[in-house]
């Protein structure tokens, strides 16, 4: 009488990417400079740098990335070969509005995405489009200091309007902002908020210390997101528009009530604040308390409460890579990892980049999120960043990646059996691409290998890893054979 573990029919299997990490063509066909285009490459131990003026002879990984701009047909053919039902990609805002505040969109930029969507359609692959994935036109940073300025809301909504009208018959699934909850955390101010941070330009420490500014910028993104949702539904009532959260799963290190409470507070503030606003349409009580206790006064316009209420998302999506622990004791050892800085869990192993591997944490997170919102969920990022070795015959035996994904997929099955309405899965970097945290190529997530190294050298040739054939079979059997 045990429960059968299986995926529903029509489950959306696919993969995920972001324009600034894989598209390249950074100054082609009228594209303007984006915030991502002024960030240099780094490594696991050296931080990336933000250079408002481009430096000669320096590697800026977004400029060429893996050149999807010129390889999109080949890449989409490979996704189709794996059997993708859905492909998560983002649109480079500065390809459509080079400065962000331009009067007219850039037609050549729009035509590029016309071609990409037509290619996906050829293979019946449903696009899932992130409207802003860790980038904005750099001009908006220079002139307005990014999202700290309310005028950016209108520029964003105008950009959405152009996308929704242009692609209303070819794109159904949209996400307003990638990992919106990162904006107030370390390096989020620039990556997600397009605001110039304090410090010496090192991305790893690039914060805006004034929480007033950070939360005000976040409020502007909430308003922008809600307006986009409302507008999208007016343009096409069948659009499904979602939020996207970097879900940072944190366990209490001990059963001490101080640790239990702290873990709950972290879950609330780091994860649920944003999705409560985007899913339920209002700031939760714990956020209001945090603002009061920290002397943060969000400047709201009269209509803001209604805007938030009218712009609730249709589904909830998130990234999940690892988990950490929290403790009220300040002397506990921290683990690395760019987003989920927390404490070491003695029961878990970590990746070469110190991200703790915790498949069961995904089941826990899925249940935790679903219990709160009861709307469809999608895991739109998950995966293992690892160094791959190319054998003499060109083959790549990435069993470690297969193991990681297999274990996470097993836990998704469990969560579905627990009653979670999970509708899709797009593992991150389905084709090798630039790491957001370190700017490296060496930290690979893909099923498809791309010949390019950390210095930016290589032929850009694509090849299939062992995981390519494995994932193809996973999709073919709807997750039965792992
Ligand atoms: C997510 C981002 O946080 O993590 C992606 O949405 C990013 O853009 C991914 O690439 C993995 O992080 P990293 O640093 O390994 O590239």
From TrEMBL:
Pfam families named among the record's database cross-references: Glyco_hydro_1
Family: Belongs to the glycosyl hydrolase 1 family.
Identification of the protein by name: 6-phospho-beta-glucosidase
């Amino acid at each position: 009488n045990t429960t059968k573990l299986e995926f529903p029919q029509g489950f959306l299997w696919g993969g995920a990417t972001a324009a600034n990490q894989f598209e390249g063509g950074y100054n082609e066909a009228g594209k303007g400079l984006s915030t991502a285009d002024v960030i240099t490459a780094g490594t696991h131990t050296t931080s990336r740098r933000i250079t408002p003026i481009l430096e000669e002879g320096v590697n800026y990984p977004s400029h060429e990335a893996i050149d999807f701009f010129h390889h999109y047909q080949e890449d989409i053919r490979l996704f189709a070969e794996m059997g993708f039902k859905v492909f998560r990609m983002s649109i480079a805002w500065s390809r459509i509005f080079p400065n962000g505040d331009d009067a007219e969109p850039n037609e050549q930029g729009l035509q590029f995405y016309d071609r990409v969507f037509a290619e996906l359609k050829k293979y019946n692959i449903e696009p899932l489009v992130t409207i802003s994935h860790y980038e904005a036109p750099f001009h908006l940073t220079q002139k307005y200091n990014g999202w700290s300025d309310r005028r950016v809301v209108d520029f964003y909504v105008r950009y959405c309007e152009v996308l929704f009208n242009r692609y209303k018959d070819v794109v159904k699934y949209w996400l307003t902002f990638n990992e919106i909850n990162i904006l107030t955390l370390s390096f989020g101010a620039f990556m997600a908020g397009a605001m110039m941070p304090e410090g010496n330009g090192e991305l790893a420490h690039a914060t805006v210390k004034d929480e007033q500014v950070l939360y005000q910028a976040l409020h502007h993104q909430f308003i922008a997101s809600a307006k986009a949702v409302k507008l999208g539904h007016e343009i096409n009532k069948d659009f499904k528009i979602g939020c996207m959260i970097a879900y940072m799963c944190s366990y209490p290190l001990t059963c001490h009530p101080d640790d239990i409470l702290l873990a709950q507070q972290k879950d609330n503030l780091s994860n649920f604040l944003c999705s409560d606003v985007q899913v339920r349409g209002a700031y939760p009580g714990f956020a209001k308390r945090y603002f009061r206790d920290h002397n943060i006064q969000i400047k709201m316009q009269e209509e803001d409460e209604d805007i938030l209420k009218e712009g609730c998302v249709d589904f909830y999506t998130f990234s999940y890579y690892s988990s950490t622990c929290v403790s009220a004791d300040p002397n506990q050892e921290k683990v690395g990892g760019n987003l989920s800085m927390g404490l070491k869990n003695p029961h878990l192993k970590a990746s070469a980049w110190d991200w703790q591997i915790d498949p069961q944490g995904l089941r826990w997170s899925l249940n935790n999120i679903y219990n709160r919102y009861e709307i469809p969920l999608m895991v739109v990022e998950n995966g293992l960043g690892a160094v791959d070795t190319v054998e003499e015959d060109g083959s790549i035996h990435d069993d470690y990646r297969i193991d990681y994904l297999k274990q996470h997929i097993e836990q998704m099955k469990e969560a579905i059996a627990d009653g979670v309405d999970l509708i899709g899965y797009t593992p991150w970097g389905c084709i090798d691409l630039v790491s957001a945290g370190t700017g490296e190529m060496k930290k690979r997530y893909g099923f498809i290998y791309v010949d390019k190294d950390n210095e930016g050298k290589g032929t850009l040739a694509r090849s299939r890893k062992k995981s390519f054939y494995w994932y193809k079979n996973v999709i073919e059997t709807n997750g039965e054979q792992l």
